Amino acid sequence: MAEEEEQKHHHHFFHHHKDESPSEVDPKKEEKHHKHKEHLGELGALAAGAYALHEKHQAKKDPEHAHKHKVAEEIAATVAVGSAGFAFHEHHEKKEAKKHAYE
């Protein structure tokens, strides 16, 4: 039984490629990757901001459930700020990758 446990393969959510080191990554691909993630962050900020405005409108329109809508509005606004921060971070990562691509 102990031998079977030693031979079991553990499954992980993230697959790490041992062959590829960070120096082997194509700089153009890395720049494109960060640009894509920046755009996803911008889209997330836009969507969360729109949802926050929707919830703000619902709070005024539905006074009986106003507290629920205000809580949802605050959460959506927080998500929008976080997503915008992620987009800002990826923008700087993209600039850094671009700088390294032309060195």
Description of the molecule:
The structure is a single chain. Helices cover 75% and strands 0% of the residues. The chain is mainly alpha-helical. The chain has a domain at 33-101. Helix 2 runs antiparallel to helix 3. The protein is elongated. The chain starts with a helix and ends with a helix. The model has no long low-confidence stretch (mean pLDDT 86). Residues 1-38 are annotated as: Disordered. Pfam families: ABA_WDS. Residues 17-30 have a biased composition (Basic and acidic residues). Belongs to the abscisic acid and water stress-induced protein family. This is Abscisic stress ripening.
* Cα radius of gyration in angstroms: 22 Å
Mean pLDDT: 86
Which band does the percent of strand residues land in? under 5%
Number of contiguous helices: 3
Q: Write the element-wise H/E pattern from the N-terminal end onward.
A: HHH
CA distance, first residue to last residue: 56 Å
Structural class: mainly alpha
Attribute tags:
mainly alpha, Abscisic stress ripening, ABA_WDS, single chain, 3 helices, 103 residues, elongated
How would you briefly describe this protein structure?
The protein is mainly alpha-helical and 103 residues long.
